[in-house]
Write a structure and sequence with these properties.
The protein contains 20 helices and 4 strands. By secondary structure, the chain is mainly alpha-helical. It folds into 3 domains: 168 residues, Rossmann fold (3-Layer(aba) Sandwich), CATH 3.40.50; 82 residues, no CATH class; 66 residues. Strands 1-2 form a two-stranded parallel sheet. Strands 3-4 form a two-stranded parallel sheet. Helix 2 links the parallel strand 1 and strand 2. Helix 6 packs across helix 9 and helix 7 packs antiparallel against helix 8. The protein starts with a helix and ends in a 15-residue tail after the last helix.
Protein backbone atom coordinates (compact mmCIF):
# COMPACT_ATOMS: atom_id res chain seq x y z
CA UNK A 1 0.00 0.00 0.00
CA UNK A 2 2.79 2.42 0.94
CA UNK A 3 4.77 1.65 -2.21
CA UNK A 4 1.77 2.28 -4.47
CA UNK A 5 1.09 5.58 -2.70
CA UNK A 6 4.69 6.63 -3.27
CA UNK A 7 4.55 5.84 -6.98
CA UNK A 8 1.31 7.82 -7.32
CA UNK A 9 3.11 10.96 -6.18
CA UNK A 10 1.91 10.98 -2.56
CA UNK A 11 5.29 10.61 -0.88
CA UNK A 12 4.27 13.37 1.52
CA UNK A 13 1.92 11.04 3.42
CA UNK A 14 3.38 9.89 6.77
CA UNK A 15 3.79 6.22 7.76
CA UNK A 16 3.48 4.96 11.35
CA UNK A 17 4.74 1.86 13.20
CA UNK A 18 4.25 0.82 16.83
CA UNK A 19 7.44 -0.40 18.52
CA UNK A 20 8.00 -2.62 21.56
CA UNK A 21 10.91 -2.84 23.97
CA UNK A 22 11.18 -6.59 23.35
CA UNK A 23 13.03 -7.04 20.04
CA UNK A 24 11.33 -10.39 19.39
CA UNK A 25 8.10 -8.50 18.60
CA UNK A 26 9.53 -5.25 17.29
CA UNK A 27 9.28 -4.70 13.54
CA UNK A 28 9.90 -0.95 13.66
CA UNK A 29 13.52 -1.15 12.36
CA UNK A 30 12.39 -3.12 9.28
CA UNK A 31 9.55 -0.68 8.59
CA UNK A 32 11.97 2.23 8.93
CA UNK A 33 14.32 0.72 6.32
CA UNK A 34 11.51 0.27 3.81
CA UNK A 35 10.17 3.78 4.42
CA UNK A 36 13.65 5.21 3.94
CA UNK A 37 14.09 3.34 0.65
CA UNK A 38 10.74 4.65 -0.60
CA UNK A 39 11.51 8.18 0.57
CA UNK A 40 8.48 8.26 2.86
CA UNK A 41 8.10 10.10 6.14
CA UNK A 42 8.02 7.50 8.92
CA UNK A 43 7.28 7.78 12.62
CA UNK A 44 7.96 5.10 15.22
CA UNK A 45 5.49 5.10 18.11
CA UNK A 46 6.93 3.36 21.18
CA UNK A 47 4.44 1.66 23.49
CA UNK A 48 5.29 2.56 27.09
CA UNK A 49 4.99 -0.86 28.69
CA UNK A 50 5.22 0.64 32.19
CA UNK A 51 1.73 2.06 31.58
CA UNK A 52 0.19 -1.28 30.63
CA UNK A 53 -1.74 -1.78 33.89
CA UNK A 54 -3.53 1.55 33.48
CA UNK A 55 -4.00 1.05 29.73
CA UNK A 56 -6.11 -2.04 30.41
CA UNK A 57 -9.04 0.09 31.55
CA UNK A 58 -8.75 2.15 28.36
CA UNK A 59 -8.66 -1.10 26.41
CA UNK A 60 -11.98 -2.24 27.90
CA UNK A 61 -13.48 1.21 27.30
CA UNK A 62 -12.45 1.10 23.64
CA UNK A 63 -13.84 -2.34 22.82
CA UNK A 64 -16.79 -2.48 25.26
CA UNK A 65 -16.59 -6.28 25.32
CA UNK A 66 -14.08 -8.94 26.40
CA UNK A 67 -12.16 -8.52 23.15
CA UNK A 68 -9.14 -10.82 23.46
CA UNK A 69 -7.01 -9.99 20.40
CA UNK A 70 -3.84 -8.70 22.06
CA UNK A 71 -3.01 -6.50 19.05
CA UNK A 72 -6.01 -4.39 19.99
CA UNK A 73 -3.92 -2.67 22.64
CA UNK A 74 -1.16 -1.34 20.33
CA UNK A 75 -3.88 -0.53 17.78
CA UNK A 76 -5.28 1.93 20.33
CA UNK A 77 -1.91 3.63 20.67
CA UNK A 78 -1.45 3.68 16.90
CA UNK A 79 -4.81 5.31 16.18
CA UNK A 80 -4.42 7.92 18.93
CA UNK A 81 -1.01 8.98 17.59
CA UNK A 82 -2.01 8.92 13.91
CA UNK A 83 -5.04 11.14 14.61
CA UNK A 84 -2.62 13.92 15.63
CA UNK A 85 -1.43 14.07 12.01
CA UNK A 86 -4.27 12.93 9.73
CA UNK A 87 -8.00 12.25 9.80
CA UNK A 88 -8.00 9.31 7.35
CA UNK A 89 -5.50 6.43 7.41
CA UNK A 90 -4.91 3.27 5.39
CA UNK A 91 -4.14 -0.22 6.69
CA UNK A 92 -3.27 -3.56 5.08
CA UNK A 93 -6.07 -5.80 6.40
CA UNK A 94 -7.14 -8.41 3.86
CA UNK A 95 -3.75 -9.18 2.37
CA UNK A 96 -3.25 -12.38 4.35
CA UNK A 97 -6.69 -13.83 3.70
CA UNK A 98 -6.89 -13.16 -0.03
CA UNK A 99 -3.23 -13.65 -0.93
CA UNK A 100 -2.18 -16.51 1.37
CA UNK A 101 -0.18 -14.76 4.05
CA UNK A 102 -0.87 -16.60 7.30
CA UNK A 103 1.64 -19.08 8.64
CA UNK A 104 -1.27 -21.34 9.58
CA UNK A 105 -1.95 -21.88 5.87
CA UNK A 106 1.51 -23.41 5.56
CA UNK A 107 0.88 -25.53 8.65
CA UNK A 108 -2.45 -26.57 7.13
CA UNK A 109 -0.74 -27.63 3.91
CA UNK A 110 1.79 -29.70 5.85
CA UNK A 111 -0.90 -31.25 8.02
CA UNK A 112 -2.83 -32.25 4.89
CA UNK A 113 0.26 -34.09 3.67
CA UNK A 114 0.51 -35.83 7.07
CA UNK A 115 -3.04 -37.12 6.58
CA UNK A 116 -1.60 -39.52 4.01
CA UNK A 117 0.23 -41.36 6.80
CA UNK A 118 -1.77 -44.37 8.12
CA UNK A 119 -3.97 -43.43 11.09
CA UNK A 120 -2.29 -45.93 13.43
CA UNK A 121 1.13 -44.42 12.77
CA UNK A 122 -0.25 -40.90 13.28
CA UNK A 123 -1.82 -41.95 16.59
CA UNK A 124 1.45 -43.42 17.84
CA UNK A 125 3.43 -40.35 16.79
CA UNK A 126 0.82 -38.07 18.39
CA UNK A 127 1.30 -39.75 21.78
CA UNK A 128 5.08 -39.41 21.49
CA UNK A 129 5.28 -35.72 20.52
CA UNK A 130 4.13 -34.16 23.87
CA UNK A 131 6.94 -36.04 25.62
CA UNK A 132 9.51 -34.49 23.28
CA UNK A 133 8.14 -30.93 23.25
CA UNK A 134 5.17 -30.18 25.48
CA UNK A 135 4.47 -26.71 24.09
CA UNK A 136 4.18 -27.79 20.45
CA UNK A 137 3.58 -31.49 21.01
CA UNK A 138 0.04 -31.22 22.40
CA UNK A 139 -1.09 -29.10 19.48
CA UNK A 140 0.59 -31.32 16.90
CA UNK A 141 -1.01 -34.32 18.58
CA UNK A 142 -4.49 -32.90 17.99
CA UNK A 143 -3.65 -32.10 14.38
CA UNK A 144 -2.54 -35.67 13.80
CA UNK A 145 -5.73 -36.98 15.40
CA UNK A 146 -8.00 -34.92 13.12
CA UNK A 147 -9.86 -37.19 10.72
CA UNK A 148 -10.99 -34.81 7.98
CA UNK A 149 -10.04 -31.53 6.31
CA UNK A 150 -12.57 -29.32 8.12
CA UNK A 151 -11.70 -30.79 11.51
CA UNK A 152 -8.03 -30.25 10.78
CA UNK A 153 -8.45 -26.54 10.08
CA UNK A 154 -10.72 -26.15 13.10
CA UNK A 155 -7.89 -27.52 15.26
CA UNK A 156 -5.44 -25.07 13.70
CA UNK A 157 -7.53 -21.98 14.40
CA UNK A 158 -8.90 -23.25 17.70
CA UNK A 159 -5.47 -23.83 19.22
CA UNK A 160 -4.81 -26.28 22.01
CA UNK A 161 -7.20 -26.14 24.94
CA UNK A 162 -5.36 -25.24 28.14
CA UNK A 163 -8.30 -26.42 30.24
CA UNK A 164 -11.61 -28.06 29.29
CA UNK A 165 -14.61 -25.73 29.22
CA UNK A 166 -16.15 -27.87 31.95
CA UNK A 167 -13.27 -26.83 34.24
CA UNK A 168 -13.32 -23.13 33.32
CA UNK A 169 -17.10 -22.77 33.49
CA UNK A 170 -19.08 -23.77 36.55
CA UNK A 171 -21.95 -26.26 36.26
CA UNK A 172 -21.26 -26.88 32.58
CA UNK A 173 -21.11 -30.55 31.52
CA UNK A 174 -18.20 -31.80 29.45
CA UNK A 175 -18.96 -31.06 25.80
CA UNK A 176 -17.14 -30.99 22.50
CA UNK A 177 -14.48 -28.38 23.18
CA UNK A 178 -13.73 -26.79 19.80
CA UNK A 179 -16.68 -24.46 19.25
CA UNK A 180 -15.24 -23.28 15.93
CA UNK A 181 -15.45 -26.71 14.36
CA UNK A 182 -19.12 -26.60 13.32
CA UNK A 183 -18.63 -23.18 11.73
CA UNK A 184 -15.68 -24.54 9.75
CA UNK A 185 -17.60 -27.64 8.69
CA UNK A 186 -20.60 -25.64 7.52
CA UNK A 187 -18.50 -23.30 5.39
CA UNK A 188 -16.26 -26.03 3.94
CA UNK A 189 -19.41 -27.93 2.93
CA UNK A 190 -20.74 -24.87 1.04
CA UNK A 191 -17.51 -23.90 -0.75
CA UNK A 192 -16.52 -26.22 -3.63
CA UNK A 193 -12.77 -25.53 -3.64
CA UNK A 194 -9.45 -26.98 -2.55
CA UNK A 195 -8.75 -27.04 1.23
CA UNK A 196 -6.44 -24.01 1.28
CA UNK A 197 -8.98 -21.90 -0.60
CA UNK A 198 -11.71 -23.10 1.78
CA UNK A 199 -9.55 -22.06 4.74
CA UNK A 200 -8.97 -18.59 3.27
CA UNK A 201 -12.70 -18.27 2.58
CA UNK A 202 -13.47 -19.12 6.21
CA UNK A 203 -11.07 -16.42 7.41
CA UNK A 204 -12.57 -13.87 5.03
CA UNK A 205 -16.10 -14.74 6.16
CA UNK A 206 -15.46 -14.81 9.90
CA UNK A 207 -12.00 -13.62 10.98
CA UNK A 208 -12.02 -10.33 9.04
CA UNK A 209 -15.46 -9.05 10.14
CA UNK A 210 -15.49 -10.60 13.64
CA UNK A 211 -11.92 -9.76 14.69
CA UNK A 212 -9.84 -7.53 12.41
CA UNK A 213 -12.55 -5.04 11.54
CA UNK A 214 -13.86 -4.97 15.10
CA UNK A 215 -10.35 -4.12 16.30
CA UNK A 216 -9.64 -1.36 13.83
CA UNK A 217 -13.15 0.12 13.78
CA UNK A 218 -13.33 0.41 17.58
CA UNK A 219 -9.76 1.71 17.99
CA UNK A 220 -10.05 4.25 15.17
CA UNK A 221 -13.54 5.55 15.90
CA UNK A 222 -12.64 6.13 19.55
CA UNK A 223 -9.87 8.42 18.29
CA UNK A 224 -12.15 10.02 15.64
CA UNK A 225 -9.91 8.56 12.93
CA UNK A 226 -11.23 6.94 9.77
CA UNK A 227 -9.26 3.86 8.66
CA UNK A 228 -9.74 2.36 5.22
CA UNK A 229 -8.49 -1.00 3.94
CA UNK A 230 -7.58 -0.86 0.22
CA UNK A 231 -6.98 -4.62 0.10
CA UNK A 232 -10.60 -5.21 1.15
CA UNK A 233 -11.87 -3.38 -1.95
CA UNK A 234 -14.17 -5.92 -3.60
CA UNK A 235 -12.13 -5.88 -6.81
CA UNK A 236 -8.86 -6.62 -5.00
CA UNK A 237 -10.53 -9.27 -2.83
CA UNK A 238 -12.08 -10.96 -5.85
CA UNK A 239 -8.77 -10.93 -7.71
CA UNK A 240 -7.00 -12.59 -4.79
CA UNK A 241 -9.77 -15.09 -4.12
CA UNK A 242 -9.79 -16.24 -7.76
CA UNK A 243 -6.04 -16.84 -7.94
CA UNK A 244 -5.11 -20.50 -8.23
CA UNK A 245 -3.65 -21.96 -5.03
CA UNK A 246 -0.48 -22.99 -6.85
CA UNK A 247 -0.03 -19.36 -7.95
CA UNK A 248 -0.55 -17.96 -4.44
CA UNK A 249 1.99 -20.33 -2.90
CA UNK A 250 4.36 -20.71 -5.84
CA UNK A 251 7.22 -19.24 -3.84
CA UNK A 252 5.85 -19.43 -0.31
CA UNK A 253 3.37 -17.17 1.48
CA UNK A 254 2.00 -14.07 -0.28
CA UNK A 255 3.94 -14.82 -3.46
CA UNK A 256 1.88 -12.44 -5.61
CA UNK A 257 2.15 -9.48 -3.21
CA UNK A 258 5.85 -10.10 -2.57
CA UNK A 259 6.52 -10.17 -6.30
CA UNK A 260 4.60 -6.89 -6.70
CA UNK A 261 6.51 -5.25 -3.82
CA UNK A 262 9.87 -6.34 -5.27
CA UNK A 263 9.26 -3.88 -8.14
CA UNK A 264 9.65 -1.03 -5.64
CA UNK A 265 11.68 -2.43 -2.73
CA UNK A 266 14.71 -4.78 -2.73
CA UNK A 267 13.76 -8.24 -1.48
CA UNK A 268 16.46 -8.13 1.20
CA UNK A 269 14.35 -5.52 3.02
CA UNK A 270 11.22 -7.65 3.36
CA UNK A 271 12.06 -11.31 2.72
CA UNK A 272 11.79 -12.68 6.27
CA UNK A 273 9.31 -14.91 8.15
CA UNK A 274 5.87 -13.38 8.64
CA UNK A 275 5.51 -11.77 12.03
CA UNK A 276 2.06 -10.20 12.13
CA UNK A 277 0.94 -7.55 14.61
CA UNK A 278 2.10 -9.58 17.61
CA UNK A 279 2.95 -8.26 21.05
CA UNK A 280 5.61 -9.55 23.51
CA UNK A 281 2.92 -11.20 25.62
CA UNK A 282 5.22 -13.43 27.63
CA UNK A 283 7.34 -10.47 28.68
CA UNK A 284 4.20 -8.52 29.61
CA UNK A 285 2.71 -11.33 31.71
CA UNK A 286 5.97 -11.92 33.52
CA UNK A 287 6.60 -8.18 34.00
CA UNK A 288 4.22 -5.20 34.10
CA UNK A 289 1.00 -7.25 34.00
CA UNK A 290 1.96 -9.98 36.46
CA UNK A 291 0.36 -8.51 39.58
CA UNK A 292 -2.59 -7.08 37.66
CA UNK A 293 -3.46 -10.51 36.25
CA UNK A 294 -3.14 -12.15 39.66
CA UNK A 295 -5.46 -9.60 41.26
CA UNK A 296 -7.99 -9.93 38.42
CA UNK A 297 -8.28 -13.70 38.96
CA UNK A 298 -8.75 -13.20 42.71
CA UNK A 299 -11.49 -10.57 42.44
CA UNK A 300 -14.63 -11.15 44.47
CA UNK A 301 -16.74 -10.47 41.39
CA UNK A 302 -15.03 -13.35 39.55
CA UNK A 303 -15.36 -15.72 42.49
CA UNK A 304 -19.04 -14.91 42.91
CA UNK A 305 -20.19 -14.52 39.30
CA UNK A 306 -21.47 -18.10 39.39
CA UNK A 307 -20.16 -19.30 36.04
CA UNK A 308 -16.38 -18.74 35.91
CA UNK A 309 -14.02 -20.91 37.98
CA UNK A 310 -11.59 -18.67 39.86
CA UNK A 311 -9.70 -21.77 41.05
CA UNK A 312 -9.00 -22.85 37.46
CA UNK A 313 -7.86 -19.35 36.53
CA UNK A 314 -5.40 -19.28 39.41
CA UNK A 315 -4.15 -22.77 38.57
CA UNK A 316 -3.46 -21.77 34.97
CA UNK A 317 -1.64 -18.67 36.22
CA UNK A 318 0.56 -20.81 38.49
CA UNK A 319 1.24 -23.23 35.63
CA UNK A 320 2.31 -20.36 33.38
CA UNK A 321 4.80 -18.95 35.89
CA UNK A 322 6.05 -22.48 36.59
CA UNK A 323 7.24 -22.74 33.00
CA UNK A 324 4.21 -23.48 30.80
CA UNK A 325 4.76 -20.40 28.65
CA UNK A 326 2.50 -21.85 25.93
CA UNK A 327 -0.36 -20.62 28.12
CA UNK A 328 0.44 -16.94 27.48
CA UNK A 329 -2.36 -16.36 24.94
CA UNK A 330 -4.86 -18.25 27.07
CA UNK A 331 -3.88 -16.29 30.17
CA UNK A 332 -4.32 -12.98 28.34
CA UNK A 333 -7.79 -13.95 27.09
CA UNK A 334 -8.92 -15.05 30.54
CA UNK A 335 -7.45 -11.91 32.09
CA UNK A 336 -9.49 -9.71 29.74
CA UNK A 337 -12.58 -11.79 30.52
CA UNK A 338 -12.03 -11.49 34.29
CA UNK A 339 -11.57 -7.72 34.06
CA UNK A 340 -14.75 -7.45 32.00
CA UNK A 341 -16.67 -9.53 34.55
CA UNK A 342 -15.52 -7.19 37.30
CA UNK A 343 -16.50 -4.06 35.35
CA UNK A 344 -19.90 -5.53 34.53
CA UNK A 345 -20.48 -6.41 38.18
CA UNK A 346 -19.52 -2.90 39.26
CA UNK A 347 -21.88 -1.37 36.70
CA UNK A 348 -24.86 -3.41 37.94
CA UNK A 349 -24.21 -3.09 41.68
CA UNK A 350 -26.29 -0.30 43.27
CA UNK A 351 -24.17 2.38 44.86
CA UNK A 352 -24.33 2.51 48.66
CA UNK A 353 -23.99 6.27 48.48
CA UNK A 354 -26.82 6.89 46.03
CA UNK A 355 -29.60 9.14 47.33
CA UNK A 356 -32.80 7.59 48.55
CA UNK A 357 -36.12 8.66 47.13
CA UNK A 358 -39.36 8.36 49.09
CA UNK A 359 -42.84 8.39 47.65
CA UNK A 360 -44.94 11.33 48.75
CA UNK A 361 -48.66 11.21 48.76
CA UNK A 362 -50.49 13.75 46.67
CA UNK A 363 -51.68 16.78 48.55
Amino acid sequence: VAAVLQTSGRSDLPMFTVSFGDNSANEAPFAAEIAKHLGLSHQILPLDERRLPELIDDYLDYYEQPYADSSGLPSMRLCEAVKEHVTVALCGDGGDEFFGGYARYDWFRRALLAQRVPRLARSWLGRLLPMLDRRRGLRLQKLLEARDVAGLYAQLIGGSASAPASELLCDVPAVHENSAEQLVRDLFARVPADPLSQAACFDAAYYIPDDLQVKMDRASMRASLEVRSPLLDHRVAQFGAELATRTKYRDGQKTVLRDALSRFVPRRLFERPKHGFSVPMRAWLSGPLREVVHEAFRQQSVRECGWLSSATLLRLERDYHAGRTELSSTLWMLFVLAKFVDRSAAATTPSTTSPRFTRRSAA
